[in-house]
Amino acid sequence: MAAKTNELISMVESLPVDIKTTLVEKILNSLHPSQKEIDALWAKVAERRVDEIKTGKVKTIPGDKVFREIQEKFHR
User: Fold this and answer.
1) CA–CA separation, 59 vs 74, rounded Å?
2) Which pTM does this prediction carry?
3) pLDDT digit string (tens) for 9-53?
4) Domain span holding position 40
């Protein structure tokens, strides 16, 4: 089994990037099949959040500030 696995890995490594990308997507989808309804709901949430940022309804916080506050809170 190990020899076949190594052979397969070698074959994959020699593929062009676009084919590798397609292969990775297919493997990931086989592990975690897409749930179109849930994906559509998440897309709506993401679009709403982007709109809220663009319109100024919500304010963003720089990542370094967020992580600093987390460290201060949990590393006392």
Assistant:
1) 24
2) 0.48
3) 999 999 999 999 999 999 998 998 778 899 899 999 999 999 999
4) 35-76
